């Protein structure tokens, strides 16, 4: 069993992207396009899970949130605006530096830390980890560590590419070849199918509440879908 979820080569790869992380037309442009879809899913599930007012502008007020593999803060900042007390971690120092500077410029108080999840104390009401598990050394241990930090009645939301030929074609063969995603970002052998993910979650003591596809079409762009072939989001609890 791996002692850490960190893969050193991944840190080097993502550290190179820090400079233009917040540029919607830069190397991380795909993350900017993914973010609104992710946020829609998160908002729907926090409202469902805690029976919140779907019209509230700060539904996470009074709750703690942990964003694991936060990059330079694309998701952490909206979570803070939704009212959460946010801790956001990433093992890449360059990204955390950019995240802190950007949050300060937005007047947001986010606790950014250069850390892996196993190095973190405490529990959190909401844990998010988007497009991270496929970059870890040991997915099962990573989920075990997330489960340990999820508070009672807490909610875990994740996203990851599916282990399908379609996902390999779109994510690696096309997106990386033509520059939509930086080359070398993904390793298809580390992609996880939903069925296997549910097994890993169960072994970590987590119950999968929902799995929803993240699909792409020329007319709609990236959107939530019943089609799981490309990428999917999931919600889980203890």
TrEMBL record:
The lineage of its organism: Bacteria, Pseudomonadati, Pseudomonadota, Alphaproteobacteria, Sphingomonadales. Signal peptide: none annotated. This is Ubiquinone biosynthesis O-methyltransferase. Gene3D superfamilies: Vaccinia Virus protein VP39 (3.40.50.150). It holds the Pfam family Methyltransf_23. Belongs to the methyltransferase superfamily. UbiG/COQ3 family. Its EC number is 2.1.1.222, 2.1.1.64. InterPro entries: SAM-dependent_MTases_sf, UbiG_MeTrfase. The keyword Transferase applies. It comes from Sphingomonas sediminicola. It catalyses: a 3-demethylubiquinol + S-adenosyl-L-methionine = a ubiquinol + S-adenosyl-L-homocysteine + H(+); a 3-(all-trans-polyprenyl)benzene-1,2-diol + S-adenosyl-L-methionine = a 2-methoxy-6-(all-trans-polyprenyl)phenol + S-adenosyl-L-homocysteine + H(+).
């Amino acid at each position: 069993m791996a002692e850490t979820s960190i893969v050193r080569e991944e840190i080097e790869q993502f550290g190179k992207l820090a400079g233009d992380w917040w540029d919607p037309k830069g190397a991380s442009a795909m993350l900017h396009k993914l973010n609104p879809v992710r946020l829609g899913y998160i908002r729907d599930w926090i409202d469902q899970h805690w029976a919140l007012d779907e019209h509230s502008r700060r539904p996470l007020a009074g709750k703690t949130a942990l964003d694991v593999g936060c990059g330079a803060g694309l998701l952490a900042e909206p979570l803070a605006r939704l009212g959460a007390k946010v801790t956001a971690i990433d093992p890449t120092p360059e990204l955390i530096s950019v995240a802190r500077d950007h949050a300060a410029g937005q007047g947001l108080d986010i606790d950014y830390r250069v850390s892996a999840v196993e190095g973190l104390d405490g529990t959190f009401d909401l844990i998010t980890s988007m497009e991270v598990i496929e970059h870890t050394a040991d997915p099962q241990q990573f989920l075990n560590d997330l489960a340990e930090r999820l508070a009672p009645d807490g909610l875990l939301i994740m996203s990851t590419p599916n282990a399908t030929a379609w996902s390999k074609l779109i994510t690696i063969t096309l997106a990386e070849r033509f520059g939509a995603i930086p080359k070398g970002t993904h390793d298809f052998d580390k992609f996880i199918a939903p069925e296997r993910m549910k097994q890993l979650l169960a072994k970590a003591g987590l119950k999968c509440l929902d799995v929803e596809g993240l699909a792409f079409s020329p007319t709609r762009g990236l959107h939530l879908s019943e089609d799981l072939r490309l990428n999917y989001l999931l919600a889980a609890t203890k």
